[in-house]
Amino acid sequence: MNSSIQSRLLISASIVLISFLSLAAFVLDAAYKRGAQQALHDQLQIHLYAILAKAELSKNNRLMVPSGLSEPRFMQVASGLYAYIFDTNGEVVWRSSSSTGEQINSVKSLSPGQKTFMRSSLPGRPSIELHYKAILENAFNQSSRFEFVVIESSDSLDNQVASFRSVLWQWLGGIGLLLLIVQYFIIRISLQPLRHIVLDLEKIQQGHAQHLETHYSDELKDIANTLNRLIDNERTHLKRYRNTLADLAHCLKTPLSVLTGLYGQKSLSTTDIKTLETQTLQMRQLFDYQLQKAAAKGHQTLALPLQIQPIAQQIITSLDKVYLDKQLTVVTNIDESIKFNAEKGDMFELFGNLLDNAYKWANSKVYIRVQNGSDATKQGVQIMIEDDGPGIAKNELDNVLQRGIRADESTHGHGIGLAVVNELVSLYNGSLKSGVGDLGGQQWLIFLPNR
Amino acid sequence: MRVLVVEDDITLQQQLVNSLSKKGYAVDAVDNGQDALYFGTEFPIDIAIVDLGLPDISGMDVIKQLRAKDLTFPILILTARTRWEEKVEGLEAGADDYLVKPFHTEELLARMNALIRRSAGVATAQLVCGPITLDTNAQQVLVNETPVQLTAYEYKMLEYMMMHSGRVISKTEITEHIYDQDFDRDSNVIEVFVGRLRKKLDPEEQHKPIETLRGRGYRFSIPLNS
Question: Which of A188, A258, B15, B46 is buried most, with the most CB atoms less than 10 Å from its CB?
Fold first, then answer.
């Protein structure tokens, strides 16, 4: 099951609601029908008693039913209300005037005083019959048995039940629909905090927010707090990791500086100095490269997208200060709106190393352009940095981009910086191209795709 | 030139003091931020070399506090940290250049030279005053294209005077920028150096580059880049 909590709740609540309403309708319907039936039976009995009260046995043992029954429907042909009186032989001895043309059968098996209700055998109209066996006595103590029958059409009953049923279903249906709608909104409102937390998490993931907000419902507050702690932990952990690495570098590099300082010692032989120099240089490069590599973090899942322009500008301002003597013309063309999901330190390394290299080798001009772009498949950031220096020969390029190998030992320059850039670019799944630019010197073209 | 070395690692500090002294710098060396602030504020420092990892106040804060006091001498950061973010932070705090540990002493000296020149408003590596040319990179002095042999102290003194040519420089000022605090201020060693410089630079007494202004000090009278 991968459906949402909302649809699960909605489906199960709807099933419960519909079964409840159907059951209620069924019970109400049955109860109403029973009530209506009972009312009809009572009615039949009242008619029966009225006839019984009027019926007399004459002194010659004959049944006498005076005309003028209280219920006018007995007089009216096909009124739906009929009465019959049978003798013990099942012969009709009396019938109401309304029953003209209708024929029913007696129920002979009844014992005196017993009554029975039954569906009528009358064709055409659904009716209910009440059969009652009574013993009538006359003043001369003679008695005779008679079967009294009252029939009433159940049309009205059926109509009543049908109309009740239709009203019932209409109402229940309406209420059901209303409840379903209300329930839908209740569920939506109840699940709102969950939806919020999901949206907020997405925001963090896309880097639009730093933390989950704290306005969630009580049940979710704990989850939000725990997640926030988790996020903080990750950040702190990374920070500590990086600081530890930097501290390690600091601890190791000061003694290394002391060793480097021995180059000038007169007491050492030239070979010793050469060895010392090579070894310390190698150590330094290995440190730097491994540290940079370890510190590089790649696309950030839990960070704000970074505005590139201020970082590049900060580095340019700093390098302008360092390379003040060279009096370079630096042209920047950086789209201020560009944001990229990267770790700040990584971008400092990328731009720092590339720009430092350009400043170092440029004769008079450095050009930097940063803009949105795309390769065959993805959108991303396009970076171009070029200078008017000597450039890097094609056959040296591999050396320059690999760790710790210097293209030109005598000039501090293409050290591990460009190797670090290369490493970073591949960490961000980007591409790096070296070429000759319009300024005639080294040109770097870098594309970093969005996550 | 008076240099303030702020480095908490004593071995490295000593090494720096030795190499810099050998090159004729007056060196004040401290191993913590408090002392660095004191020396930076109280002494006429020409350049400071600051290690970022100090035990008490961070090197970054030392730089910020020095700059907050309107002290403008160049500051070179020594750092073991190679992250650009930190380099940029240091430069933004007020440093002028950085050098990543470990480093070659030659490179440190070259960077220091460049910074000192820049702070004196000299754009090129060569200071030219008439027939006298001082090459700060090669640390060489030429008079009419002929090299002149100077001691480290003599060289530093000439460099200072040429950088501030046309200005009256008191004996105290020279002393403060050339010697560290142990120097005996009453001795006549400055007169001796000036005498030797005059002899070496202008044996025929044609140009008279160094004027004596009685009771006020000296003036390098040939304008820079002439």
Answer: B46
The span from the CA of B169 to the CA of A193, in Å, is 77
- Cβ distance B87 to A318 less than 8 Å, yes or no, reads yes
> B21, B72, B84: which to substitute to probe chain A, counting the most A Cβ within 10 Å?
B84
Structural contact between residues A440 and A388, judged by C-beta atoms closer than 8 angstroms: yes
- C-alpha radius of gyration, chain B, whole number: 18
Interchain CB contact of A246 with B (< 8 Å)? yes
CB atoms within 10 A of CB A5: 12
> A388 near A449, Cβ under 8 Å?
no
- Quick: pLDDT tens for A320-356: 988 888 889 999 999 888 888 888 888 999 999 999 9
Give exposure, A306-336, as e/b (b: 16+ Cβ within 10 Å).
Answer: bebbebbebbbebbbebbeeeebebeeebee
A121 phi/psi in degrees, rounded to 5: -90, 5
Closest partner CB to A257 (pick from B81, B92, B103): B103
Chain A hits for B12, Cβ within 8 Å: 254, 257-258, 261
Element holding B3 (H helix, E strand):
strand B2-6
Residue count (chain A) = 451
Contacts of A249 in chain B (CB under 8 A): 80-82
Render pLDDT for A31-81 as a digit per residue (tens, 0 to 9). Answer: 999 999 999 899 999 999 988 888 888 888 888 887 777 788 888 888 888
Assembly ipTM: 0.77
Please, which residues have CB within 8 angstroms of residue A193's CB and are 6 or more apart in sequence? A216, A217, A219, A220
- Burial of residue A37 (CB within 10 Å: 0-12, 13-18, 19+) is middle
Helix (H) or strand (E) holding B66: helix B59-68
* DSSP letter string, B150-173: --HHHHHHHHHHHHTTTSEE-HHH
Which chain B residues touch A260 with a CB distance below 8 Å?
A: 102-105
Q: pLDDT tens digits for A262-294?
A: 777 778 888 888 888 778 877 777 777 777 777
Contact at CB, B88 and A260, closer than 8 angstroms: no
